Amino acid sequence: MTNRSASRDLKDIKSKVGRMNEAIGEAEKQSVYSWLRSTDPSKRYHQACELYESDTGDWVFRTPEWKAWVAGRSRCVWIHGIPGAGKTILASHIIDTLKRMCRQGERTACVYYYCYFGNRQDEAAPLLKWVIDRLCREADVVPQCLYQLFRYGAEPSLADLLHALEAILQEFQTVYLVVDALDESTPRVDTLRVMRDLATDARFAKIRVLATSRQYIDIENAMSQFSSPISMRNKWLDEDIHLFIKTQLSTNRKLQRWPTDLQLAALEGLSAKANGM
After folding, report:
1. Domains defined for the chain, CATH in brackets
2. Among 12-16, 77-81, 113-117, 124-128, which is the least confidently predicted range?
3. Residue 151, Cβ neighbours under 10 Å: how many?
């Protein structure tokens, strides 16, 4: 296919999308969005934001894996750590940082999804539905293939949803997707397959995926094939913990009264025993 014919095909696709959206009223768009939404993760995102401590979490932005991911040299980053390490709160901080980045760029979006064991579901379909919903609202566009699925009325397959995601991506240059707590998807076979497709399939080259989870063997076996891993036990986090404890010792009125040698001992002892938490 020549560049000219490829360009013509892309224009045809956008023209069809445009004609479809002219035919869909606002009320009908809202019906499509309501049909898409099965799980809303925004509550968990807001809860995590409330727990975020200022000036923490910036360590991740100093890692070579993050820098390669933001620059587009890597399509997927996987952050793993033990329970209580702060992965969910870190994810909220990353999301807020990406949102600020997206406001400075054109046709760029940040979408998040929080898996949760209380949902008692494989999060693959709810994840895709939420991402498609967010991107459609961002672009104010309902692709024809998605509208046809809505009109058909049946539960869409994962293949259907991936096709709809491919269609709405035509409206964007880059999409950052943050998925927290893969381990809380129960079961998670399909969720891990979707992660693989989003990170490796050429159809989704515009998407950059960042996922967090515990280091379970099935997740590690899957994610290690296509992601750049970042452990929550690392020198950058150790530096942040050391700085946080030092700040607390110097600003807390009660702790300021401690003798210098006791403060130093507390600083070294707590930093060493933090265990990445």
Report:
1. 3-232 (3.40.50.300), 239-273 (no CATH)
2. 12-16
3. 10
For CA atoms 221, 222, 224, 228, the dihedral sign is negative
- Helix (H/G/I), strand (E/B), else coil: 46: helix
List, in order, residues 6 or more apart from 182 with CB less than 8 Å away. 115, 188, 191, 192, 195, 211, 212, 213, 219, 223
- What value does the mean pLDDT of the chain take? 86
Cross-strand partners of 153: none
Among the listed residues 199, 198, 219, 195, the one whose alpha carbon sits nearest the alpha carbon of residue 81: 219
What pLDDT does 19 receive? 45
- CA neighbor of 94 nearest in space, from 57, 53, 55: 57
* Residues 145, 57 contacting (CB under 8 angstroms): no
Beta strands in the chain (DSSP E): 76-80, 108-114, 174-180, 207-213, 228-231
Burial 216-231 (b: 16+ CB within 10 A, else e): eeebeebbeebbbebe
- Distance of alpha carbon 162 from alpha carbon 190, whole angstroms: 12
- The conformation of residue 183, written as its DSSP 8-state character, comes to G
* CA 115 – CA 112 distance, rounded (Å): 10
| Global model pTM greater than 0.90 | no
Q: How far apart are alpha carbons 39 and 30 in whole angstroms?
A: 16
Single-letter code of the amino acid located at 10: L
- Count of residues in the chain: 277
pLDDT at residue 254 in the model = 65
User: How far is residue 231's CA from residue 221's CA, in Å, rounded to a whole number?
Assistant: 15
The predicted-structure confidence for 45-84, as pLDDT tens digits, reads as follows 999 999 998 878 899 999 999 999 999 999 999 999 988 8
Separation between Cα atoms, residue 87 and residue 85, nearest integer Å: 6
CB neighbourhood size of 204 (10 A):
19
* Backbone torsion region of residue 153, taken as left when φ is above 0, otherwise alpha when ψ lies between -120 and 50, otherwise beta: left
